[in-house]
């Protein structure tokens, strides 16, 4: 917030002053406080997410009032719980249907690393099929941890350059997942 400054208006311009900042910072601030999460919950982490949205913890105070259950209207994918390998293509399709810019949070041990389910049928972390921005540890994580992960996404969104998604590094990352 210290990058935004109130500057005195030049002579002949009406008003007390105007704000001077870069477009990147203004858009980042607006985006970070108006994220629309799409919850992809499959097990116990989903219950903790429900508690996070309830009145005691109230994730809506961070600008995530509107949960979107349509990938085309969401910009934050929150994957919670065990993801079976058969569900992997569905999760990937949901991710691809989201508009850019999009961010991903892996909530809990199962979404992050497969958790206690080291079996042939469970995906050992969603980062095998889609890029993940923030990992929230726990089995299941407490609502405070989910809020901390959400705040981590907010910080990432606020400081992300508008040009980051067109950089060669980002395009190489997407290509490593087979995403064009």
TrEMBL record:
The keyword Thylakoid does not apply. It is found in: Cell membrane. Residues 44-151 form the NADH:ubiquinone oxidoreductase-like 20kDa subunit domain. GO terms for biological process: aerobic respiration; electron transport coupled proton transport. GO terms for molecular function: 4 iron, 4 sulfur cluster binding; iron ion binding; NADH dehydrogenase (quinone) (non-electrogenic) activity; NADH dehydrogenase (ubiquinone) activity; quinone binding. [4Fe-4S] cluster binds at residues 44-45, 110, 139. It is a peripheral membrane protein. Keywords: 4Fe-4S, Cell membrane, Iron, Iron-sulfur, Membrane, Metal-binding, NAD, Quinone, Translocase, Transport. It is an enzyme of class 7 (translocase). Its cofactor is [4Fe-4S] cluster. InterPro entries: NADH_UbQ_OxRdtase-like_20kDa, NADH_UQ_OxRdtase_20Kd_su. Binds 1 [4Fe-4S] cluster. Transmembrane segments: none annotated. It catalyses: a quinone + NADH + 5 H(+)(in) = a quinol + NAD(+) + 4 H(+)(out). Pfam families: Oxidored_q6. NCBIfam families: nuoB_fam, PRK06411.1, PRK14820.1. NDH-1 is composed of 14 different subunits. Subunits NuoB, C, D, E, F, and G constitute the peripheral sector of the complex. Belongs to the complex I 20 kDa subunit family. This is NADH-quinone oxidoreductase subunit B. It comes from Mucilaginibacter mallensis.
């Amino acid at each position: 917030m210290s990058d935004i400054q109130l500057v005195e208006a030049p002579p002949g311009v009406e008003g007390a002053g105007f704000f001077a900042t870069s477009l990147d910072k203004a858009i980042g601030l607006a985006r970070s406080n108006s994220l629309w999460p799409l919850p992809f919950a499959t097990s116990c982490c989903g219950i903790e997410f429900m508690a996070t949205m309830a009145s005691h913890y109230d994730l809506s105070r961070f600008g995530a009032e509107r949960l979107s259950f349509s990938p085309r209207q969401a910009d934050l994918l929150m994957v919670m719980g065990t993801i079976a390998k058969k569900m992997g293509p569905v999760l990937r399709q949901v991710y691809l249907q989201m508009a850019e810019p999009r961010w991903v949070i892996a909530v809990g041990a199962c979404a992050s690393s497969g958790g206690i389910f080291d079996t042939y049928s469970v995906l050992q972390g969603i980062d095998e099929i889609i890029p993940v921005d923030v990992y929230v540890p726990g089995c299941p994580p407490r609502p405070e941890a989910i809020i901390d992960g959400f705040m981590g996404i907010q910080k990432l969104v606020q400081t992300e350059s508008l040009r980051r998604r067109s950089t060669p590094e980002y395009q190489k990352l997407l290509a490593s997942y087979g995403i064009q």
